[in-house]
Amino acid sequence: MQDKTSTISHADVESAYARWAPIYDLVFTATMKPGRRAGAAAINALATTREIQLLDVGVGTGLELPMFSPHVKITGIDLSEPMLNVARKRVLREGLGNVLSLQAMDAMALTFADESFDAVVAPYVLTVVPDARRTLDEMARVVKKGGEIVLVNHIGAERGMMAKLEAWLGQRAAALGWRPEFPWAIIGDWLAQRPDIVLAERRKLPPLDLFTLIRLKRL
After folding, report:
1. CATH number of the domain that 101 lies in?
2. Are the C-beta atoms of 147 and 158 separated by less than 8 Å?
3. Residue 162's pLDDT is what?
């Protein structure tokens, strides 16, 4: 079952990101870099004394991959093969030996066993998938007890001109490949039904508080 706010399908996402892949880095690097850095810093803080196994959900072109500590051993997944192809070239070009695997996979149906990873990071993903709750369930399933899920996401405005702009853009979500409208309630309601997951941190990020860092801990 999809989110009530969902206006995109897997086909929409694959089509949109096949178009975005050649220019994605050029268009989005600067705007999303602070969020990627914040997400990577949260993960690196977990790996100061030991190696950890990380699942990067929606790794895309791999812009955040060089930001992780060598102690973070990364498995990346994405629905879009064209985006993954760019990420694979980045790994080779920058000699990122801690990237273990980059795989085409549906974030709503991960093929990994339960409790496979010490942490999960998902930068700018929940507004892309057709069903954010199902994606959160999958991330919670594959993270180990005591592990963290680190999200970087746009949280939609509740009122004002920004809310109106997001509603207008939301009518074009299929072409964009993501949903500009994304209420906090999707995450908040999911947390209310998951006593095994607690909110560890929630803070706004630059530029202009457009994005939010969210750290979830599995008890």
Report:
1. 3.40.50.150
2. no
3. 59
